Each structure stands twice: as C-alpha cells, then as structure tokens.
Amino acid sequence: MPDPLHGLRAEPDPRDPRAPALLHPWREGEALDGRVVVMGVPYDGGIPSRPGARFGPRAIREGLFAFGSWDGEREVAPVLDLGDLSPPSMNGAAAHASIEEAARRVFAAGARPIFLGGDHGITGSLIRGLAAARPDTPLALATVDAHLDVREYADEASLSSGTPFRRALETPVLEGGRVAMLGLRRFANSRFYLEWAGARGIHLTTVDEIATHGAERAAKAALYRATSGAGALYLSIDMDAADAAVAPGVSAPGIGGLSAREMIAIVRTLATDPRLVAADIMETSPPFDQDGRTARLAARLLLELMAAMCPHPAA
Question: Domain spans of the chain?
Fold first, then answer.
C-alpha cells in the first residue's frame, strides 16, 4: 500500500542528527568489554505508592527525541542498547535476584552500563551485581536523591525504593566513608536515618548547601570526599531529587528540590570522573508525567552520562 503521507512527512536532516540514533541495538554475540551500554530495568514492585516507574525506561528513550547529539562542545558517540530486562513482576525476591544476576553478567563482561529504571530499590541489586563481578575493587558511591534510602528491611521480599543504599553498604566493596549523597531535601528524611548515615561517615549535601555554594562546587567536594581510596565510582540518580516543578512524574515528588540546571550540572560534574564504571537513572514515572517534562530531563541526564563516558573519537 502506498504511503498516504509520502512527500508530506518531514525527512530526517542528516546535518542535524538526533539523539535517539545514538542507541544502537545490541546484536547477539557482540563484545561488551569496554563498551558503554544502556539497559532498561522496568520493575517498580518496591514502590509503596504511585506505581508506574516500570514504564520509565521506554519514556526516557523516547525523551531523547527532544535532543540532538551535539551540545556545542561535545559530540556524543553511539552506545549499545541492551534492551530491557524482564524481571518477575509478582515476586520481589525473585525480581531482585534476576536483576542482580543480570548486572553481574554485564559487569563481568567488562561493560560500563547506564541502567534506566524502575524503582530505586533496584540500585541495591545492581551494586550487589557489581560487587559479585569485581569483589576486589573498592567502590565509591555518589547519589543524587532527595532521600537517604537506607531503611531497614526484613528480607529480600520486603525490598523497597527506600532500601537500596542500605543493601549497597552491606557489600564488601563499599563503606560509608566512600558514599556521598547530594540533593537531600528538608522534611524528606527522619532524624534517625540522618544520624544513622552520619555515624557511618556518609558525606551529606543538602539542597540548601547546593544553592549556597553552587552545584558544580558541591559535586566536586562530594567526589573528593567519596573517591579517596576508591578504584571505581557508581553514580545513582533518583529523579525525585529535582523539584516537582521540573520533575512531577516521579514516585515521590517534592517541593524545594533541585532545579533542572542544578541536576544537569551535578551529573555532568560527577560523570567526568575517570573512575565512573556505571550509573543509573531511577524513578521516572510516566503515568504522573502528563507533558513528559520529567522524561525529557531524565533523557538530558542520560545524554550527559553518555557524553562523559563515551565521547566521540573526533571530539
């Protein structure tokens, strides 16, 4: 059947490449060693309210259509897209076990992954997978999040979006002195857990401190503190660190969060560290993102990660 819109639909301009073309589907057997890869983790069984983050990976990829591949200074090189995992949706323990094993395989293959979630509880399993693949590498962790996410949990079936960094600290590759958390918001964390984190030497940076000292300076200070003695860096981004005005489509929106420019500046600064081996972008929830602004901000952060981790050879 002939295309009824032939001649009416705008053709892609080869002189203005768009960001979605940067994601190259992985082919079975293609080597991953040293490659930057993107992997979706569409699971949100750990969110106690406002589910929907399982649709985040697709929304973030679609958000790339708003951007080109050149930021005025850097041309982003293509990366491999491994597609989405298919974790069990009705069994939390089994879902996290499958996510951890998938992460272990990706890290063991030598890839440098960017994971798209999904609820933030996933991050604990991703870091456990990294620890299993590289048990002798001291890890530093930087988080961009309004919350501490160090809640206690009873067992693997009770994991939630509030537990990932408690689980990460249970691995032998990570300790509190190599953890930096940026973007903590007022009235978002209890005194108990703030004192728990402080007692373990975790470096805490609030939204107010970022506003006072600047996003780039705060990120550099966090890096200096967390990466001392580390052989690798993991960056975890929760989209609820951004103010609800710029990121309403998250599981736990809040007032008084980071601006879009602050989020971008923090991620750009952290991503340039040569020890960065992996990152994730969590908690984008399309059902609450009617105009797509959260997904577009997440896509912009994905581009910042890609630009830093996989610069174009000609750049």
Answer: 34-309
55/295 Cα distance (integer angstroms) = 10
Buried b (16+ CB within 10 A) or exposed e, 252-288: bbbeebbbbebbbbbbbbbbebeebbbbbbbbbbbeb
Residue 191, Cα to own-chain centre: how many angstroms? 26
Q: Which amino acid is at 175?
A: E
The tens digit of pLDDT for each residue in 34-47 reads 999 999 999 999 99
- pLDDT tens-digit series, residues 178-223: 999 999 999 999 999 999 999 999 999 999 999 999 999 999 999 9
Class of domain 34-309: alpha beta
Eight-class DSSP state of 241: G
DSSP string, 253-287: --SS-B-HHHHHHHHHHHHT-TTEEEEEEE-B-GG
Kindly list the distances between the CA atom of residue 62 and the CA atoms of 50, 59, 184, in Å, as whole numbers in the listed order.
21, 5, 28
What is the rounded distance in angstroms from the CA atom of residue 144 to the CA atom of residue 180? 9
